[in-house]
Amino acid sequence: MEQYDIIIIGAGPGGLTAGIYAGRQGTKTLMLDKGFIGGVGREVPEMENYPGFDLISGLALIEKMKGQCEKNVEIHEFEGVNTVLDIEDGEYHFEVQTDKASYLAKTIIIATGSEHMHLNVPGELEYKGLGVSYCATCDGLFFQDKEVVMVGGGNTALQEALFLSNLGCKVTVVHRRDEFRAQKILQKKIKEKGIKTIMDSTVTSINGQQVVESVTLENTVTGDLSEYPTDAVFISIGYKPHTKIAEELGIELDETGHIITDKWQKTNKKYIYSAGDVCGGLKQWIVACGEGAIAATSAYKDIEI
Question: What domains sit in the chain, N to C, each tagged with a CATH number?
């Protein structure tokens, strides 16, 4: 089996930054991801708060980070990790088994990120790809000049609503509370663009024949139901962390299901670190990058000791 100082599981912003730092420290590092490099970071339409860039898309930034990372790190896309086994004795502490091979590692960095949360309402699964989407940058072009509903009230929801509006979609934002959680600057832009909002409302079903035709809305204050016509439903209500590997390894999770780490990104299990959205906290790109840098530095120091 091939042997590595560090194996990074997951290649989003946190994992890629860990790779950049690990590679520059001279460690032999392998990065594994079950899909494309970047994860959900690829879907961010526009960022205006990443230092050094007035405006950049998630995909563009991922490509820049990947280019930096692959100079010193071996990257395997579309290679999912099935399990990680403990090794009791010797220099290598873990055997990482994927769907293609097995590898030995002295240390592990878990940067598995998260996945889109679902509404779990009738019609959501039935119309996925037929008007139901979780990615505005992926599917927005299909709905130019058409009515679309964006469900959510956080930063990502409003960013994607603005993106869809700029594409020419006729956007309505539906949010279950009486005010948005998103940054004030995004709320201001929503108003300036004249994007329609429906507050204090939840989507209770997604309706149609062969494709999406409407949503049923429930007012959270009065309980009244109404049908709202739309050609598409974009869902952005948060993310669920990918913690399967962590749970199998006995790594402690907090009450929200995220991995617990100390300030050096160390978990409760020796030689295992974590970074990015799977750790919870402030789920921002720059935070994931900072945690990735710390995790790789911690792993390097523990190997040197």
Answer: 2-115+239-304 (3.50.50.60), 118-235 (3.50.50.60)
